[in-house]
Structures are given as structure tokens and as C-alpha cells.
């Protein structure tokens, strides 16, 4: 950002974000208060960070347009709609990035930025600071909730989002995983790949595993539990709790890892740590994991990410006959539709399933008697 800068500071165990003007270094109060609200609401640091950059981009756009956020609320519907559509296209052109970082963002990223901005406006409305945005509401009615209190329900109206491209993320393949495991130079990286493939956990969830509390040594299960004070910022998504069982061989390898790095692990409680350099013994963070996968790609020519290993887990469980609901629960998905996308269940597969069904149940309705 040229005129607005996102600042991050630690307040005890909380990672806090705020926005300041680069020339005066003065804090931009309303957006910064909103970011603190998000932090205190226990949103993940990554979510708050994205909100911060979304708002910093929007402030820059407002400066260019010579407008203020409260002035936008006073616009008529059509003018407001054009304002936010133009903001989306401004983002799409990459104007919100520094010159050396100039990349064209995808439509989903642009839409996510605008949704963050809309949430800020809604927060300011609830605080009594701003009027309602007309592009968000075109009708409303008042009803009573279960306690008998009046509640105002509104219909969402903004239709100007960019059409999002479908994410084309494939699942990792078993032969690729085997190649990566052989290419690793230490058992920590091997264990991380194995756990990602056998649990289906997100990388942030894996990095938040506490080896003193989350491992059931009798039943060979590993749990993820929401914590917001991990030194590496790792935490379970949606504040959820899940357990996953790993194979006997992988659990034995986990025991080998714990013995191999026993001295380094004793300095803290998280399972995955840095094993060399000045940070040896400190908790491994997400950036270090992705750096490792990039090194593996350079070494083997195989591109695999933690997310691809998560999809591998889903695909393999489906091939093994797991029900979709069970796979969805294992992955921690809120909606079954998300699991279906993970598994790439396409029209051809649905048609094949229908053919198999009607082959067994071809006379459900006695249609022949109707002819």
C-alpha cells in the first residue's frame, strides 16, 4: 500500500493488526477498531490479516476516488453498486499491490476482499456509526426470535461479484507421495507428509498438535483441538475438535521421530519443530512447511502441497467405501457440498451410478403396465 500500511504486533499471545497512514504513521481508527473486534472474537490471525489488507486496499481506493466510507453509505443504490463494482475491477487490475508484487489476483480473491469490506460496513452500522448500505439490503421485515425479541431480517441484494473460477486442485497420488518420502532428508518432513496423508488434517491443524496432550498412544489416534495461543500461530479451523487414527506403521514412525528429536522437543509442546539453525527447537510454522514442499518440488519435479495430501485422503477413503458423510466429518467440512467438490464427483460418475442403480431397480414403477 502506498498511503496505508498494515501493522502487526503481539499483545501477549494475541497477534493484533491495525492500519496506519504511511506519511503520518497515525492509526486509522475505525478500521483498526474493527480489526481488534475480529481478534477479540477469536478469529484466526490469518483471517484478521486478510481483513486488514482488504480494508487497507479499500482505504487506498477511497483516497483515489476522493471519498470517505460514510459518504459511500449516503449514495443512492445505483451509485453504490457502481462504486463497489469498480472497486472489484480495480482489485482485479492489481492496483492494490506494490509494484514489485504486481500480480493479477483471481476473481475469488477480489470477491473475498469486497466481502471483508462489506463486513466492516455492517459492523459500523451495528455500532451506530454508519447508515445501512443500500447494495446489501433491498427489503426487510421484522419478526420475533425464540425469546420474543424483535429481530430485523434483510435480504441480500448485491449482485456485482466477479464470476469465480473453479479451483482446479487435484489430489496427490500415491506414487508421488512415495517419491517425496524417499527424497526427504529428515524424518520430521517424512512424518509431516505421512500425517497429512493419513489424517486429512489441514496443515494448520497438524502444526497445532500438542505431543503431550493430543496423541493417544494406546489407540494410535491423534486429535486436533482448538487453541489460540500456539507460538507458531497454528490453530484448528472453526474451533473444532476431531480425532484421526493412523496406521500402525505410521504410529511407529511417529515414536521414532519423538525419540530422534527428544532433546529439541523438550523445549516446548508442539509436535513439529525446527530441527536446525538458530530456531532449532522452536515450533514449525506454515511458511517453513511450504518452503519444504517447494524444495521437494525442485528436487523431484513433483508438485505436491498440503492441500493435495488432504484431497488424497478424501479420494482414498472414498475408494475404500467410506460414506460421504463420514469423509466430510473426517475432513471437518461444514457442508457436504464441499466434500463433493474435493472428490471431484462429476456428471459422468453420477450417470454411471444411475446406470448401476437402474440396472438393479429397473421396474420401480411398473411402467410396462402403463403402456
TrEMBL record:
It holds the Pfam family Phage_integrase. InterPro entries: DNA_brk_join_enz (IPR011010), Integrase-like_cat_sf (IPR013762), Integrase_catalytic (IPR002104), Tyrosine_recombinase_XerCD (IPR050090). Residues 167-355 form the Tyr recombinase domain. GO terms for molecular function: DNA binding. GO terms for biological process: DNA integration; DNA recombination. The keyword Coiled coil does not apply. Keywords: DNA recombination, DNA-binding. It comes from the Bacteria. Belongs to the 'phage' integrase family. This is Tyrosine-type recombinase/integrase. The lineage of its organism: Bacteria, Bacillati, Bacillota, Clostridia, Lachnospirales.
